[in-house]
Specification:
110 residues, alpha+beta, 5-stranded antiparallel sheet
Amino acid sequence: MGRGLRENELLSPAWMKPALTPVRLADGSATRWPPGRRAATTSRRRAVSYGFGWLLDPWHGRPRMWHHGDTTGFRTVIDRFIDDGLTIVVLCNRDDIDAVALAPEVAGRT
């Protein structure tokens, strides 16, 4: 999947553009982490860029697009470091593992 996204085999650059363009709220303000939700990087109060389906949130100065999900017993995350050509997918069939924290930890070792 990483190569397919990187080389535009799945979506053309024109189709991918909305996913990489930060949205603004109706009042024109930046999106922010919702109250009570843990941000995967720094402060919950800081702005977070969100494209069409992707969080656009740099990690240690590295441009990153990512998305996560969970349900009872499962956690998943995909981190794409576009400039590095690196995609990390974490699939957990347990709910006691922090997949969102694990993916950047893996990126830090590359």
